[in-house]
Amino acid sequence: MPSAPCPLLIESTNALPLPSLKASYLPDRTSPSLNYHHAQTGVSYSITLETSTTIPSPDFTACFDLIARTSATAYAASSVGWSPAKKRKEMALPDLRYLLVKASSGGEGKAGSPVEGFLSFMLTYEDGREVVYCYEIHLASGLCGSGLGKQMMEVMEGIGKRVGVEKVMLTVFVENRGALKFYERLGYVEDEYSPRPRRLRNGVVKKPDYTILSKPLL
User: Fold this and answer.
1) What helix, strand, coil percent values describe the chain, rounded to 5?
2) Alpha helix (H) ranges present in the chain?
3) Tens-digit pLDDT profile for the chain (218 aa)?
4) Which of 131, 139, 135 has the alpha carbon at shortest distance from 120?
5) Quick one: DSSP state of residue 1?
6) What pTM was computed for the model?
7) DSSP code at position 94
8) Which string of DSSP letters, residue by residue, matches 156-208?
9) What is the rounded (10 degree) CA torsion for 180, 45, 140, 90?
């Protein structure tokens, strides 16, 4: 008798409700990887997981505001352009997941604490390969350079490894030198599918204003 077909990895993982997703792929909430103590300010922070359907509306708005504050100008100057409506629509994609940074109490975000950083990602396919794609990563100005960005990336990478996807991918504007250096320090390199410069009919070489980076997980 033929065996039942194996469910597709990406689809079956994305179908998990949030509690099952946390139990299967996220460390215990007391794990050091989900907690951070800021030595200079004495404030402790926690990293929690939400989906695009479970994230509270104030937190969703706070994430959007972080993007607008830190990146709207870069988007507007790029070929992508800046559209608040389109960005909000993208942020609500059904399979998007959020790692939220909040001031913590006992390993959990304090009730009413504002979002002070986040990373959004999706388990998906790129060119037929199973990947975790990092959509956005942003921190409030007071937390930049604190190590929380690296910590969120490592949590996302850990989820990708536990799920069993091939690599992490992300897109970054080439003018964002600080971000490029940050990702390079974490082991990211230009992906084989990153856009290449192209020569126009008049001989002018047009360089893309973004690059795609990746890091293997297998």
Assistant:
1) 35, 30, 35
2) 9-14, 18-25, 57-76, 84-91, 148-163, 177-185
3) 444 445 699 999 999 999 999 999 999 988 999 999 998 999 999 999 999 999 999 999 999 999 999 999 999 999 889 999 999 999 999 999 999 999 986 555 556 789 999 999 999 999 999 999 999 999 999 999 999 999 999 999 999 999 999 999 999 999 999 999 999 999 999 999 999 887 777 767 778 999 999 999 99
4) 135
5) -
6) 0.92
7) T
8) HHHHHHHHT-SEEEEEEETT-HHHHHHHHHTT-EE-TTS---EE-TTSPEEPP
9) 70
CB atoms within 10 A of CB 173: 19
Tell me if 139 sits within 8 A of 148, measured CB to CB. yes
Which residues 6+ apart lie within 8 Å of 74 measured at CB? 173, 175, 176
- Which amino acid is it at 16? L
| 23 phi-psi bin (left φ>0, alpha ψ -120 to 50, beta other) | alpha
Cα distances (Å, whole numbers) of residue 195 to 15, 199, 206: 31, 13, 11
Long-range contacts of 17-26 (CB under 8 A, 24+ apart): 18/49, 18/50, 18/51, 18/54, 21/49, 21/51, 21/97, 22/49, 24/162, 25/158, 25/159, 25/162, 25/163, 26/155, 26/159
CA 114 to chain centre: 19
198 contact partners, CB below 8 Å, separation of at least 6: 205, 206
Nearest to 215 by CA among 145, 160, 175, 162: 160
Burial of 126 (0-12, 13-18, 19+ CB in 10 A): middle
